[in-house]
Amino acid sequence: MDDHKISMEKIVSLCKRRGFVFQSSEIYGGQNGAWDYGPLGIELKNNISRAWWREMTQLHDNIVGLDASILMHPRTWEASGHVENFTDPLVDCKKCKTRFRADHLEAENLEKKLCPECGGELTDTRKFNLMFKTHIGPTDDNSSVIYLRPETAQGIYVNYKNIIQSNRMKIPFGIAQIGKAFRNEIVTKNFIFRTCEFEQMEMQFFVKPGDDDEWFETWKKQRWEFYKKYGIRTEKLRWHQHGKDELAHYAKDAYDIEYEFPMGFKELEGVHNRTDFDLSRHTEYSGKDMQYIDQDDGNKKYTPYIIETSAGLTRNVLAFLCDAYDEEKVADKGNADDWRVVLRFHPKVAPITVAVLPLMKKDGLAELAKEIQNELKEEFPTSYDQAGAIGKRYRRQDEVGTPFCVTIDYDSKEDNSVTLRFRDSMEQARIPRAELIDRIRKEIKNYTRA
Ligand code: ATP
Description:
This protein is about 30% helix and about 25% strand.
């Protein structure tokens, strides 16, 4: 029996059915830990990353962008500590061959070496480095080892001097970057939550030592506000402070923003005080002085502290999908068991902003609808649908989270007005065609989720 509640199965199925996310290489049985973003998925992902970029760069005079390469000098990962420390504890079941992260197992299973799946015997715990290793150039010996970056942050640190010099940046300032990262995750499950190939949105903020605690609080606040602003329900968010045992070797303090996914509260983004660890290590490993010369303070030199905000873009896609998902009983049909699936995306992240629907294909309505769509296209992502009953077409748009539908009917030909239908309330308003764009703009600006 369907309880009309969210589940990961429903999200996965909707994503496939409507072209948000597909399994990678599906025709070959799928590739573990990899997913492909379909036509609506890429729009959603782009909208989230654009929103993040806008909030983190456009709205701050002292934050600039960067797009560093995925392949970096292998010494980078020695300096960062990844070669030595970026490991997960791994155990295998000798019987069913399932692989587990030891730190995710129940204490009893670990102690008794008992597989939670089949009761078979587990191997000893061993360290497993999460970096993907490959070779560059024609030889494949140790001298040609190169890694796919496991985080985007290091690309920022190695460029921090270039950016200070070319853009005359003064502390405090930040560098923002969005890009792919790769981790050979032991267990990939829960759809796009944990994958081997994913995208991160990171901002590294360089501050004077001593000012770090205050900036840490500032960025915590700002990152929470981001989710609120783009429509994530705050009751689904919470903070988790890293305990002493969780804290990374370089971190002074760390908080995760967790979102309540169908499988429970899980990390969505981390805000970390990374101290001067990274820049000091790059000074040590590269032999280049990464200190900042403070021209406003008698040319004093110091190694800046770094406050990092590190969010998963692809994990954000999942959070936005889960948060938007709703099943609503539709009362107006007189049918006691009529439900609609609706994605209540904020209009700024919805893949399609406006759908244009002629009531009928014939009598010139389709042509008029196309004409109106062409006007709207210049301003918003649109779609056009003329197939089937109008009620069904509204439902199709609800299911992918389109906040506005514009319906063109016979009266439209006479009085040059259209019906604007709202996804959340299902209310309809009659609007003069000339006012349509402004009205939609205003609705987007003033949007709040009911
Ligand atoms: P976890 O404990 O879940 O493995 P982490 O603490 O190692 O994550 P960070 O290194 O802090 O994660 O990465 C920052 C962000 O990048 C995370 O908050 C998450 O949103 C995202 N992220 C990390 N690993 C993955 C992954 N394998 N798949 C998708 N997103 C990821």
